[in-house]
Each structure stands twice: as C-alpha cells, then as structure tokens.
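Workshop exercise sheet. Pairs work together: one partner reads the sequence aloud, the other fills in the structure field after running the prediction. Swap roles for the next sheet.
Pair: D.N. / O.F.
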Amino acid sequence: MTEKARSFFEWIVVIVVAVALALVLRNFVISTTHVDGNSMNPTIENGDRIFVNRMGFFKDRLKRGNIIELHAPDKPGRDYIKRIVALPGDTVELKNNKVYVNGQQLEEDYTSSQITLVSGDKTYWELSEDEYFVLGDNRLPRESNDSRIFGPIHKKAIVGRAFLRYFPFNKIGIL
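Structure field:
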C-alpha cells in the first residue's frame, strides 16, 4: 500500500470512529434540546438550548424539582421539557389553585404564576411505583400540556434530566 493510500485509509478510520463516538454520546450519554414553546417560562424560554443527561442511571436518582425531557404522551413523536413535582408513591391534589403533594402545599418559587389551575377533569392522583407527576413552570391557562391533562407519566417515558442551558449565551447556567 502506498503512503497516500495508507494516509487516506487512516483518515477514513478516524472519521468513522469520530462519527460512531458522536452517535453513541448523543443517543446514550448527553443530547441537546431546542426548547419550542412557553410551557417552562420563566425558567426556560422558547428558543433556549439545553443539555440533557440521557444515561440510564439518572432515573434512579430523580428528585422533586428536577427538570426532565420526556416523550409526550399526548403527541407521539414529540418530547416535552417539564418539572417533576411528585415522585413514585406520592399523592397529588390540585385545590384552591395550589399543588398539594402528600397533603402538603408545594412551595414553588419558579412558576410564572402564584396559582395552578385545573386543566383536565381530575384533581387528585395516586402515583404508582413507576410514575411521576410533571408540570410546566408556566401555569397560565393553556400554556402547558402536562400531567394535569395527560396524567402521571411512566418512568419509561423519561428521556433524560436537563442540567445545563447553553444558549442564549447570556443565560448559560445549571438548571
């Protein structure tokens, strides 16, 4: 093999390995998401870009308050960004325009409004061992498709945990 052929072959190998590594990282480790919509205002705004941890072990470490990416139960092929407000085994109740988890009013300093309106027919949910209750931070009427509408989500629907906004640059920071 000539030196030119060997050099060309080496470059092909490097490019193939780089593409394979990028695909593995994007699909199984960290992905980027472009936020489309206002459901997480004021925390995350329309057009923001965020990094999402997609490694499977995070699912055993999810906490109330984490922001996650999930497969939209009401719109196949789409993903949503939402905040976990209740964990497996919890009860959730919407009353007096507030969110109650396990009978205690949830303190939420990240929402767009001091009130959380009922959006569907239900006001009370008991979560199973693999279910989470998620809400958008924008609690204004018709601004967020969330568990008030589609109910609790199953652990399998969770894509990853959002952890960093990287765009716009003047808002870079941990979520």
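Discussion prompt: The chain has one domain: 33-174. What would you look at next?
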